[in-house]
Specification:
Aminopeptidase; 140 residues; 4 helices; alpha+beta; binds coenzyme A; 6-stranded mixed beta sheet; 29% helix
């Protein structure tokens, strides 16, 4: 467990469910083609993935990161901070990176929606590089 600027970061627990979904909605991370409940259930507490939450001293879920790896690369999703500019986003990204480091995953990646490009500067400030790749997808 890690504490930063009055935020305690710990793995998701079942009783966080509603608060995490509300946070994701408030932060504009829920889109019609993703079911956030299913996303949460699939990732939280799994051998290769988890959802980390940042909790305020009064017990409120105020930040999150979904982190996981596919055996090769690590991925971050659902990076969210309810209150902006308090270092919470930075702390969640660092917690996700550490989760991967502990599992000996050498590189972390994340995707930014085209509609959310301003957030690119946030990641760049944390030492992340934008790389020229084409992401291909297929719904299964
Ligand atoms: C992106 C987000 C997580 C940042 O959280 P935050 O708690 O406000 O960020 P922090 O306070 O940790 O900021 C860390 C640094 O990034 C900078 N920063 C934060 N948001 C930024 C932005 N949108 N653009 C540029 N820089 C930004 C801060 O100024 C700070 O810089 P400093 O250390 O030099 O002062 C938050 O704005 C958020 O939840 N956004 C909505 C959800 C989202 O878009 N998530 C990303 C999905 S890819």
């Amino acid at each position: 467990m890690d504490t930063t600027e009055s935020l305690t970061i710990r793995p998701f627990r079942a009783d966080d469910h509603a608060a995490v979904i509300a946070l994701w909605r408030a932060c504009g991370l829920v889109v019609p083609h993703n079911d956030p409940d299913a996303d949460l259930d699939r990732a939280a507490g799994r051998p290769n993935s988890d959802v980390l939450v940042g909790v305020t001293p009064d017990g409120r879920v105020a930040a999150s990161v979904m982190v996981g790896h596919d055996g090769h690369r690590g991925w971050l999703y659902y990076v969210a901070a309810e209150a902006r500019g308090r270092g919470h986003g930075r702390a969640m990204v660092a917690a996700g990176e550490e989760w991967l480091r502990v599992r000996k995953i050498p590189k972390a990646q994340l995707m930014i929606r085209e509609t959310n490009t301003p957030v690119r500067d946030f990641y760049a400030g944390l030492g992340w590089n934008a790389v020229p790749r084409i992401v291909m997808e297929r719904w299964l």
